[in-house]
Amino acid sequence: MGELKVPTMAEMMAEGRQPEVLFWVGCAGSFDDRAKKITRALVKLLHKAGVEFAVLGTEESCTGDPAKRAGNEFLFQMQAVTNIEVLNGYEVKKIVTACPHCFNTLKNEYPSLGGNYEVMHHTQFLRSLLEEGRLAIEGGKFKGKRITYHDPCYLGRANGVYEAPRELIRKLDVELVEMRKCKKAGLCCGAGGAQMFKEPEKGNKDVNIERTEQALETQPDVIAAGCPFCNTMMTDGVKGKEKEADIAVMDIAELIANAGEL
Description:
Blueprint: H1 9-14, E1 21-24, H2 26-31, H3 33-48, E2 53-54, H4 65-69, H5 73-89, E3 94-97, H6 100-109, E4 118-121, H7 122-131, E5 146-149, H8 163-170, E6 175-176, H9 207-217, E7 222-225, H10 228-240, E8 248-251, H11 252-259
Parallel strand pairs: 1-2, 1-3, 3-4, 5-6, 5-7, 7-8
Helix pairs in contact: 3-11, 7-8, 9-10
């Protein structure tokens, strides 16, 4: 991560320190070049807000979400139990992640396997930092821009988190324009349920193209996302429509970091 110093839980524990939160990076945020930018943006914001946080580093394994959604319950439980042993070994209480798939799995699937944590999506955590006065958000270069927000399924419909991301976007002094299908009626980007990792099946139109068309109807300058999978699907959709020169697809953490020129 270059100049960004991020301690691991092992390093912190060796110093006898316990972080305020564990940042769960997730597979996308660790390995996908586009999603790494989201990881960096969030790390910059946490540093700016003075949050003491750590990552698991090489001790972090996939939460098991793709395996579970693809129907491999055995693999999911193996991955989950391994992670829970590590998390409980470090006495982790609070986890923040930029991936709704990790968020949903850690929050809703891990308790029955012995992993009980306070799990927050990064938009929820950033909002709490805003409310506590630890983070200030300014419009910066996004002031007055038209931004539409795509609800990730695992954040919105699965967990009812609709307002935190929108509050953060509004703080940027932008015009938040809603798609005709949003919030509870939001349409999937096409990547959920482990569909991210396979080719689309034959049909009239790919789901991500359908969703991108709904976003383009709002004539946005930026399509805001809160999920690395959604980011990929919407980016591909925008490229498919040859609009990448005009419309940016950005995670909310990136919007806030870029507005503050971090």
